[in-house]
Amino acid sequence: MVRVKFRYLVVNFLYPSPAPKSRTALPDLIQIHSPTPDAFNAGALVRLLRDAIEDLYGDYGSGMVSSSLKVNYFSPATSTAIIRCPRDHYELVWAALTFVTKLPRVDIPVVCRVVRVSATIKKAEEEVIRRSRTIVKRARAGEGKADPMLASVEKSVEKERREALVVVDEGHESEEMSE
């Protein structure tokens, strides 16, 4: 009897443009790694993958991949997923993920980045845990002290705001003087 062999893709979802409901300007690093919207779940990801594979490879691609395509893990908080696909055709899934530009239903631009291809689910899970720990360490290291680059950006933005207010105030005063 022949055993069906799989590959596991660890995928990160990145959001290059600001969220439409965002009121505050977030740093680019935080904005790109923002959480996935609640309307997008594991079932929507499978449908998205099947549609993308069919668009890219037609019936052949759908037939080769759809029977064993499964999302083993999906975390909207970290925008990470582990996708199981057939070993012989994992490149089809990877290529389809590369061509995805928007999330369905929520219509938000997205970049799907495959960060690891693994032969076992255990190694894929270890990679997700390792990446999560790294993110937590960076966040804790940044709590106590301000990031120098972020601080300089905040200073320059504040300076530009002050200059804009001064220009507006001067323009308002010159209008009152001319009347």
UniProtKB/TrEMBL annotation:
InterPro entries: Pop5/Rpp14/Rnp2-like (IPR002759), Rnp2-like_sf (IPR038085)
Reactions it catalyzes: Endonucleolytic cleavage of RNA, removing 5'-extranucleotides from tRNA precursor
GO cellular component terms listed in the entry, alphabetical order: multimeric ribonuclease P complex; nucleolus; ribonuclease MRP complex
Enzyme class: hydrolase
EC id: 3.1.26.5
Gene Ontology molecular-function annotations: ribonuclease P activity; ribonuclease P RNA binding
Gene3D superfamilies per the UniProt record, alphabetical: Ribonuclease P, Pop5 subunit
Family, per entry: Belongs to the eukaryotic/archaeal RNase P protein component 2 family.
Name of the featured protein: Ribonuclease P/MRP protein subunit POP5
